[in-house]
Batch of 4 targets.
Target 1
Amino acid sequence: MRLYERSISIPKLSEASGLLQDMRNAVMTNMPDNEAPVRLVVTRSDQQNWSCELGLLDGEQHDTIPTDFIFDFKQRDFESSESFNAVLIVPTGIDAQLGGHAGDAGAVARLMAGSCDNLITHPNVVNASDLNELADNGLYVEGSILTRLLMGTVGLQKVRSNRVLVVLDKHEDEFFYEAAINSVSGARASLGLDCVAVVLMEDTISMRSLYSNSGRAVGSITRLERLCKVLEQYHGQYDAVALSSIILVPRECHMDYFKTDMINPWGGVESMLTHAVSSLYDIPSAHSPMLEDRAILNLSVGAVDPRKAAEAVSTTFLHCILRGLHKSPRIVKNPRLDGQSGVLTVSDVSCMVIPDGCVGLPTLAAIEQGIPVIAVRENRNRMHNNLEDLPFASGQLHIVENYLEAVGVMNAVRAGVSPETVRRPMRDTRVEVSGNPVSAGTDEIDAVSNTESEEHQRDEMGKRTA
């Protein structure tokens, strides 16, 4: 089994059937046999086309996974107001200024968690090697599962803890897998992690970092069936899986990453792997890279960009995913969307926060579900899309400058206050006259009012004359 990325161009249609349906039709029409998409990203759009990049799973498929499953959609009928639950997304591998390095959107997540009952986010936002500072009301949800939540096909059930299976490459240098085992033991002793077993894979999968045509960090993965065999061998014994394996990158990348502005080369291919694992087995999953050798471990990188510092001081990069998976919510397939007790569904999602310009299945699902979307300009990235061109309902899209302003909009939505009513200047009230939209306070309204007044005066004069 193989995972890889492929670029396609999708013509823009009338949108009468909805963007999601148009995307599904275009992708599946050109899908080769024995391949299934596991994620879709719109990297650039104009008036004619969507430039997309697909993550594809090539090989024997499990019977439970239809080839078009990522497009499955279930419409919510209402938004629950019992609690306020926000989704925070920073897509992996797009060179985001916040969240594109080593868990450097963790502070953003903590900020936003203070303004909602539950903050639903994904590993890329908070994974910082040996650190993961997600707040107690934060839900650590793998990216493909988060997408399916927004599509309405899965729900999330909070847990007290998970039984975690840890699967490691059996590195040719025992130092590295022993360090990983020590990380697991440390999490057991300090976090109370329930580790079912640490499995050392002698027959490893192969992960290679690459960059796509758009500049996104992606990659390729081969021999995935070896990992599937392990996961099936331990079926029923674990609730979540932590993975650590070597990712092949050019040796110079290890120093260049810390010394230049290059995109993190590891996160993209990690995301491809966890998307596939969580999709195939409906379990929480997360991955951390394992270093190739001691020469790379001993590189002297000096004092680095604070966004990358967590990686500069770690050996295994493993604790962040163990902490996240410890209480990652259980996945509930085909949930009821009518407020079923104890399960968070798309009906419970109150808003979504993304970097400006990012379009993928979560954004398209939010449009269809009527979920307010807050787009943050300051979180610049490699995606080239104008969100204002998308068919958002009136008042559904809020474009803000930074995450501090985003929290203000979140609080306004939570309070039931239209954000534009607390800004100045305040636009005139919209008034309909004989079906023609005009604004109160305009000359047109004044003219209409004057005309009505003159007609009233003529009527009164006629009555007196009679």
Note: Confidence is low (pLDDT under 50) at residues 443-453.
Target 2
Amino acid sequence: MPTSWLQLSLSAPTEALDTISNFLIERGSPGVVLEKNAVRAFFPHPNGKSLKRDVRLFYRALRTIYPAVKGKPLRWSVLKDKNWNSSWRRFFTPQKIGRNLWVTPPWLEPPRSQRRAVVTIEPGMAFGTGSHFTTRSCLEFIEEVCASLDGENCTALDVGTGSGILAIALAKMGAPKVVALDNDPVALEVARSNVRTNRVKNIVQLSDAGPARVKGSFAVVVANLVAETIIDLAQALKKRVSGNGYLILSGILKPKARDVLRHFTPAPFVLIREKAARGWVTLLLRKER
């Protein structure tokens, strides 16, 4: 265990936060925290010189895509190991989502409530802790559609599972079978650990297959990806949803939402509702028989 940590703090426009956090995770950060128009990331110390150079070059290149990044400073600080938990973990608290869910990190107990299922997620090496709007809105739609379906028939497919949070929530909401896909081996390992922690190993089946290779159809299909990937997978996603089943699409920047919808509507899907905030859109669709 390192005796000290490097903390990176930076400001950025909302639409750039996921790109930045993904880069920092790939560069070795075990903890990335998204705040409003800001990112905090933590790295084992010392490995600062090459890390700072790589981040600086990445940040410079990012300005060509997101001009608003220009002029935003990169702030580095050193934290002693004894301050690690308070500096990183203090950003994660139990979150109440919808009517029936708590999402909590493993070191905290959520407030006791017999009416709420608890999803325990280790933050860090895979996307999905419930704090980002795209994940939260997916969870809210999952709660809604699971409540409307007969539990026995609520089979589910989670495409791009990341930390496994959506697959675990589906299991906790009564789905008898959940297939969770991701082509990132790190994400699958994190998801596997979270599935064990939440004791849903008998329900959630993890795989590195793409949706085109999955057999059968599902009452609920969730894809929290990006607009371009959703469009690329549109044909496979449509085939995986059973008649009268639900499709939840997220990770979509607002300007891309109409383009995504064109690949699913007016047939065979109808748009039931959408949630939008902070430049992101999540869509809830239903497949007509």
Note: The two ends are 56 Å apart (CA to CA).
Target 3
Amino acid sequence: MSGEILSTSTSTDQEKFIALDLIRRSYLKLVFGALCDKVTMRKGAGLTANFIRYKRMSVPLAPITEGNDPANNSFTIDTVTVTLDQWGDIITVTDVAQLTTLHPIVQQCVELLADNAARVMDREITLVLLAGTNIIYGDGSVVSRSTITTAMKMNDVLLGKIRVAMVNNGAPPRGGPVGDAKQVSAQGSFLNGNAYVIVCGPEISQDVMQTSTSLGSWASTAMYANQKALYNTEIGTWLSFRFVETNFIPRFTLIGTNTTAVVSGSAFGTDTPTVTAGVGGTLGAGTWSYKVTRKDVLRGFEEDISIEHTTATAGSGSLAFNFTGVTTGYVYNIYLATGFGVTGDAAMRLVASNVAVGATATITAAGVSSVSAPANILATAGPAKVHPVFVLSQNCLNWVGFYDIQMRITGDAPIIGNVLGLKKAIGYKFFGKSMIRDQTRVMRVELASNF
């Protein structure tokens, strides 16, 4: 990604009775980076990191008979791998913009890029957590996002289910022990920590701060005997869970209508593309299933997700998705079935990504990528939003990288393409990836909210 600031772009920041104090940007609470254990890759090790665990042996089920050795036992090895990604962004500033702008424009670019990088890193950690396999939907009585009802909110009973599952999985609380089986001392517990961390949005934390069925179980950080909160943006505890609040977390909503069939040449609701069946492709004659998702360009999460829609095509056909007239500030992804008549999220694969507002994406072949469609929320009489909540234990997440975020600014030495020093480039890059060390040590809960 890149951007360029010309003198015309900064004309409003030229001195025309303008206040010297800048209006500050809103505060974003980015927390996931602080909850990862940092692992540094050495140069030359390739892009894939491999983590090894020796799995527990099975136990003997019968006593030894006299004079006979027990049957030979064995062990197996688990391998968890992560493939690193490189991210970066650039802004180019002209010399005219630097000379005519009231506020130091290069410093502002550095601050904006630092904010940009922090959001990207936090988003990438969140996306790894969203791909986790240890999940509770709603109150635990349903098995998918699309069946969560408006009544399924955070409460004492649900927290009890979460705690039971985490403890039975052997997930150590934050600050607690990890490793092999241990005998508990008769003089006391060997546990050094006894609370799991819950990361959630303000909607969920506001739910738990309301009067609960246990009455008075919420303890704000102000009640910690005036001690400093242990985690960034920690707001309190409830039933031995430490709640950390973030406002940079996805909320899943429904985009478009809840009517499946879409007639060629029509859209399927507000801020959805016009879908037109055409020719010039390899889509066979039949009914094709697809989903469309939307991402806010300031956040990057696929939060707005359509239900599965269908449009009929003729032989040797195609489907054109025209995004003219939809709200700006978003990009769109399109998922198409692997064959006509095939249905279900798992059978719809990513065929177009980050389609800009005003663009048309023409799909000429069935979906074959490895990325399947995300689940939508309940289409009829469901909650307006579904909120993910992440429960984290000790040593559950890694951030694996070659280096931390690096900021680069070009010098003033004349080089080919910029002999006269007419522009300066500022950018950042980082090379890394988050990984879940053990799926049983992380849980995702998806809920409705009162807010």
Note: The helical segments are 95-100, 105-130, 156-168, 202-209.
Target 4
Amino acid sequence: MGYETYQQSPIYTERAVGLSRLTAAVKKVVDDDKIPVILGGEHSLTPFAVKACADKYHDLSVLQLDAHADLRDSYRGSKHSHACAARRLLEIAPLVQAGVRSLSREEWDFAKSTGQLGKIHWAGKIKPEKIVEQLSDNVYLTIDVDVFDPAVVRSTGTPEPGGLLWTETLNLLTKICEKVKVVGFDVVELSPQKGDLASDFTAAKLIYKLMGLAA
């Protein structure tokens, strides 16, 4: 199904309405000078939350922790797929990416041609001070749990080996929150599996820790 056909489908209409409600809900929170915390769900929800934050914080930048670049312009007929989240974010605010270890040729070519390649911090080569230098004072943080190595979180749709470990990630987030103001964040792409409580508890603890750091 092509994108134009998909746009006319009931599924697209229902999805678009739901995501626009998310923008409105986040706007109410940020207008009240509070920090929105969004739990997903697909990564495709992030641009709709960021839009509300960008309307309030005009110097907003986004930090994405993710195993994947998510820089496709469209995927399976949709421009709002989880594989397009970062591409849509770049239409709203500057983006810094960390933990990436998988991307397509299309994404590589796009990142190289636009200069985004210089804002991708590959897993295994992350230096927090370099990331901070590329962020503005007000930052929206989006975390796809597949940024973690599968040994830490395996209950996610597209796990990738070679990811971040728990202490490494907490150290990075602590340093980020010390240097910039996190005005909102989301944690997405947890896909609970029967018998794997460790992934669920890790995601919950990450959210708990981030709430404290951001505050």
Note: DSSP finds eight helices and six strands in the chain.
